[in-house]
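We store chain and fold; thus.
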Amino acid sequence: MMKKNRFSVHVIGLICLLCCLAHLSFRLPASQRPGPSFGCILPLISVAPMSGISAWMEEYDELHLDSLGLSLEAFTTAVRGYQHLLSKGLLDRDGLLTIIDFSQSSKNKRFYVLDLNAMKVLFNTYVAHGRRSGAEFATSFSDRNHSNKSSLGFYVTRNTYNGGEGYSLRLEGLDKGFNDKALARNVVVHGSWYVNEQFLSSHGMMGRSLGCPAVPMEEHEQIIDSIKDGSCVFMYYPDPNYLHHSRVLKG
C-alpha cells in the first residue's frame, strides 16, 4: 500500500511539473518563442488573396521594375497595402496601383503607374516632393498644414478639377496620422513646369512643390485621367516609424 501511494505521489508530481513547464512556455517573450523572427520589410507581407509572396516577386520581375529603379521592398509594401484596401472595399478601381518612391533621387523617374491585371507599366516618369522634405532627396515627411512637406502612405484618388495649378486630381489620405489631412491640405496631383528634363539639366535636380506630387506638364493630363476616381496611390520611403505604425500595413 505504501509503494502504491508513493507511486501515485510521483505521478501527481510529474503531472504538476509538466503543467508548470507548459504554462511557462506560453509566457515566454515573443523573441524567445519558437518560430522565425523577421527584421526586414518583405516578411511583413502576409499571404495575399491574389497570390503569395513568391508570385508577387515573379510579377515584380515580369514588370521589369528593378531595371526601372523600383525596389522589391517598395513594390511588395505597396502591394500589401493595396490588397488590404481592396479587401475593405475602399478602392473602386481594381488592378491599378501608383507608386511614388521617395527613397530615390528626384533625378530619377520614381513615379510608377502599374496595371496589375494586364501586367503593364502604364507610366514611369518624374515627380516632385515637398520643398521642405529635402533637396535632391526627400528625407523628412509631415501631414501638418503649411509644412510644405510630402506625406507618406496610402491614398485613394478622388475627383478632378481645374484650379490654380490647372488640371488637378484630389487625393484622400487613408493612413491616419501620416496623410489623412491630404484633402484639407490640398495635396493633389498636378502638372508643373519645374518637373522635366530641361529643369533637371539646368538645376541638377527637380524642382520642389508645396507638398504635392507634381508631375511633368506634358504628361499630367494622361496620368490624371488614367488614375482618377478610386485607384490606389502609395508614397513610399523606408521610414521605420511609418512601416511599423501604418494602420493600412497592419491590416
Summary: The radius of gyration is 25 Å.
